[in-house]
Amino acid sequence: MTSWLRRQRALAEYTLAALARRRIKNTGLLLIYAMVIFVVASATLFATALRKEAEVVLAEAPEVIIQNLVMGRHDLIPGDVIAEIDGIRGVASIKGRLWGYFYDRLNGANYTLMVPLDPAMAPPAGQAIIGESLPRVREMPWETAPLFLSRTPGDLVRFDIAKRLSSDSALVSTDLILLNEANFRAFFELPEDVYTDIALSIRNPREIDTIVEKIGRLLPNARLVTRDEIARTYQKLFSWREGIMVLLAGASVLAFVIFAAEKASGLSAEETREIGILKAIGWDTGDVIAMKLWEGGLVSFGAFLLGTVLAYLHVFAFDAGLFASVLKGWSVIYPDFALTPGIDGLQLTALFFLTVLPYMAATIVPIWRAATADPDQVMR
Amino acid sequence: MILQTPILALLLASALASAVALWAAWFGIRLLQHWDLASGSQRQLDLERRTELVSTLFGFVMLIEIAALFLLVFNADRMAALFVGAMCAVGTFNVNGWGFPALYLKITLFFAAALWLILDRVDRLGRDFPLTRLKFATILGIAPLVLAGFATELAFFLNMKTDVITSCCSKLFTPSNEGFAAEMTGLARAHALWLLGAAGGAVLVSGAAIVLRKRGERLFALAGAAFFFAALTAIVSVISLYVYDHPNHHCPFCLLKREYGYFGYALYVPLFAGTALALATGLLKTVANSDSLAGVQPKAIRHLTRLSLAGFALFGIAVLWSIATSQLILFG
């Protein structure tokens, strides 16, 4: 074992020195390689961070949401349903939610208007709590400038600002306007005792399926959405977008692999001479191949490290400026949020498989060809 | 479903392995037909040169297959969140009929790859290509495995539908079921531990015989294989209970989850490595008997035995640790 280790150490040492001798050529290869890895790594890191963000946000969501359906479309749900469902065992709490969308003709943005579930959170009458991007898109001149919403031409409703939400929660609250219940019903001209939907929280997650089944029997027309379903959909969506990006980047990996194979097979006169000398002084084919594999390994490792670190910086320090819109989606008011930095071992391994394997595979044949040449032939 | 980075990586690795395996098998057939060490013909020289290339490439691919087993399992565990009813990797593998065949093929490939890599390594130590014929004959056996592995993997990933309700591990690993998993689960806990202890004793004794007396290699290989199955049975029947602190949760896959500190890897990696190395000692004893390996073979065998024993010891430590730190009291 020790002799084996010593041999590998000697090979690595020799390879590093050989690489340093052809500094410009190898740096070029390394940079291009790192660039390819950077693109793929950015996509996977970014998608992983988005998935994690969605997970964190959804952890607070209610376990089950009940929506009323009329003609297959979402409709208001009468409040007397609440008492009916409250009788089901295992339901920890049940609340009617009031929320809706408002299209702002001034700037083409859609706001989400909502009554907080917790009455203590609700603003006083005539006031609103607004999300992080509202002051931005409405260009509010000063901190406490009131918010005017116009439902129809000639109509104007004024809300004083009770509070602005911080950007910590921007992913979910960026377009939010929180009102109290009376203001909300008045603004949308809603009758009393109807709700947009009903949120259930269930204490034991294993009972969710049974409770959903019971509610389904009670309200055959309702649509029941569980938190797990929403989480699954988000995971799938982000994974799918990531996959598309990686597949597109696959083209550049392929191009790079062809480039690398080409480069490995077209050895310079100096390199062939070097191999010739090595073989003349007693290296056998296996040694030369091992040395060349070390070379490939060192270049791959360097490029992988460089590419991944650059991608990490790109995603977490520069908000993935290059292709964020592809992965996030876009809208007029998009939340301004910082991703939580994180690295996922599975993604890194997959990334390694996708970038380093093709390179190693493509260079082995040219390496062998160079290594098996007879010394007298190459030195002549 | 197929557009997920780890899935793309696995498929790429398998496709690459299949291409290399096909080519290596084709070369293997030519080699078996024309290999004649006594001849100095151009063809023989050419074959000798090419063995270097094919061995290197195939060895590279075998290394990838070993890594791919872990990627496959880890990814399956991660994907469980996407399927209705799945709690761990079992649910993912159960999502269609191809999941478990793909896993079993990958495990078989893992052992085949490990044995082949050791053969290759020993072959290179001899001066006159002592194991080359055998090496390429085994490639002919491994290549179909690689291809079948790729095909099942592809079928598994292509047929993944997230709206299918899959079954959770608690449905599979319960004594009231029929089948192999249920048999393992239903085995009395004390029996499973005794079985594991007996197999461990056999491994220790036969391993010591190799290191001290230079004999009993095949026995050690047999004991290693027996220990492997005893260990899997014990994991399902009793060790998992200790890890989960739960008297009825038998799943051998939930062990790999983050909730349990990825403890499963501390069990499975040394167990699989130890078993593969133990099998290799028996293999080397049986096949590596040529004169040019006379000095190499006993040393290699003893070395492999020590490593194998170390693997089994690590597994044993992990088991004892899980029992000692558990809140669960099953006996007494």
UniProtKB/TrEMBL annotation, chain A:
Record flagged with keyword Aminoacyl-tRNA synthetase: no
Keyword Cell membrane applies: yes
Subcellular location: Cell membrane
One Pfam family hit: FtsX
Location of the ABC3 transporter permease C-terminal domain: 268-375
InterPro entries given in the database record: ABC3_permease_C (IPR003838), Lipoprotein-release_system (IPR051447)
Cellular component terms (Gene Ontology): plasma membrane protein complex
TM spans (from-to): 30-50, 244-261, 301-327, 348-371
Superkingdom of origin: Bacteria
Membrane association type: Multi-pass membrane protein
Keywords for the protein's UniProt record, in alphabetical order: Cell membrane, Membrane, Transmembrane, Transmembrane helix
Single biological process term from Gene Ontology: lipoprotein localization to outer membrane
Family, as annotated: Belongs to the ABC-4 integral membrane protein family. LolC/E subfamily.
This protein's name: FtsX-like permease family protein
Species for this entry: Aliiruegeria lutimaris
Automatic annotation (TrEMBL), chain B:
Keyword Transmembrane helix included in the entry's annotation: yes
Organism: Aliiruegeria lutimaris
Transmembrane segments: 7-29, 53-73, 103-122, 134-157, 192-212, 219-242, 262-284, 304-324
Keywords annotated in UniProt: Membrane, Transmembrane, Transmembrane helix
Top-level taxon of the source organism: Bacteria
Name recorded for this polypeptide: Uncharacterized protein
